[in-house]
Amino acid sequence: MNKFISRRRRRAGLAAAAMLGLALTGMAVPSAASASVEDASADKDPKRAVYVEVNNNDMANVADYTLEGTNRPAFDMAMIFAANIHYDVDRGAAYLHLNDRVTETLQDADTQIRPLQERGTKVLLSVLGNHQGAGMANFPSREAAAAFAEELADTVDEYDLDGIDFDDEWSRYGENGTGQPNNSSFVYLVDELRDRLDPDKLITFYNIGPAAEATEYDGIRAGELIDYAWNPWYGSWQPPQIPGMDASQLAPGAIDLTQTSQEKAAAFAQRTADEGYGAIVTYNLTAGDHSEYISSITKPLTGLATAYRAAPVPDYDVAATCAGDAVKLKVTVVNNDAENVNIDVITSVATRTFSDVGAGESRTVVQHATRGTVADGEVTVRVTGAVGTADYSASYAVPGCR
Fold first, then answer.
1. pLDDT digit of tens for each residue in the chain (402 aa)?
2. How far apart are CA 97 and CA 84, in angstroms?
3. How far from the centroid of its chain's Cα atoms is residue 229's Cα?
4. Cα(222)–Cα(224) distance, integer angstroms
5. Please, is 1 exposed, middle or buried when counting C-beta atoms within 10 Å of its C-beta (0-12, 13-18, 19+)?
6. Which residue in the list 53, 118, 150, 169 is annotated as catalytic?
7. Which of 230, 261, 313, 348 lies at 20 to 30 Å from 209 by C-alpha?
8. Is 39-308 CATH 3.50.50.60?
């Protein structure tokens, strides 16, 4: 309980500091509320949200898309799909489970998450059930909901995420002796999580399952604590009905990027703009260039088409020879990108970094496996450009040097 109290105090302190900072800014430079025209336009446009199935695709794909002629992201929010609510039978408690692929994504934040955030996309962790009886709608007490909320907030803090998305599916309520959904659980969970997150963090809701039917309890409205709610039925138009939320927070149009026709996607986007809704939700962004399809969504919402640019792909060559009794590696990398990039050559022998390598330029590194180092037959070439970072691997035959 002390941990909960300390976190609440920290959040309150941050909010107070933020308010003081705003007041001082307003007094010092009243004319300096000067976000760029581009930023001001971005604030008014309906938000574009995307779910990425990380078991099959990289989050980094989201950073490949920008609004044409700008540095603005095509997607304002991206959900890592998905973490799960598991149930510990011995403890009789729910807990947060991160599968291997979700864990890899979070731990590889420098290539999978940071490039999105640097462009302006908010990255959230989506959470849903996993057939074990535990879900967001059947916490038996406020204390149980608070304990799970604490796990979620700690994960947001640890990986510097932008929030949590809730999806009340696949829980199989009642399994493992768990309780059935109740009226207080989801409200308590959202209330406790909001209390633990920094003010700039988001809570979003895939409007489905028992949680969607229990958003008010004991004078608390979950809708007043949630930032955005999504229509869960892809290929359809259905405004979520959540007390406390208005049109600016709702995404009635739901698009499966691999199944919904481009014409329907464009129609949903146009209707979102025409009817004053604040968001549209998409699902299953895969690798490759889908800018034509995504443009049919961004044009009605922002007036701009979508541009695609994948992470830079270099040419590289690895050779291993002998220098006396030591292995000598020679790695040459060519920047095929139109802009300057940073290049890291990573081997078991050493790491070498080259900064601001110009378009068409090459860099060569020579490494000797001496002083206890071992050549293990693998090289990683990491290239960081304007749209993000990509790793490329190469194998080489290790010569038997004597």
1. 333 333 433 333 333 333 333 333 333 222 222 233 445 556 789 999 999 999 999 999 999 999 998 889 999 999 999 999 999 999 999 999 999 999 999 999 999 999 999 999 999 999 999 999 999 999 999 999 999 999 999 999 999 999 999 999 999 999 999 999 999 999 999 999 999 999 999 999 999 999 999 999 999 999 999 999 999 999 999 999 999 999 999 999 999 999 999 999 999 999 999 999 999 999 999 999 999 999 999 999 999 999 998 667 788 999 999 998 899 999 999 998 878 999 999 999 999 999 999 999 999 999 999 888 999 999 999 998 876 677 888 899 999 997
2. 5
3. 17
4. 5
5. exposed
6. 169
7. 261
8. no
pTM of the model: 0.74
Class of CATH domain 315-395:
mainly beta
Task: Measure the CA–CA gap between 207 and 100, rounded to whole angstroms.
Answer: 26
Q: Catalytic annotation on 169? A: yes
Q: Domain coordinates of the chain in residue numbers? A: 39-308, 315-395
Peptide bond into 82 cis (omega under 30): yes
- Alpha carbon 230 to chain centroid, angstroms: 16
CA-CA distances (angstroms) from residue 112 to 2, 60, 228, 339, 369?
34, 5, 23, 21, 31
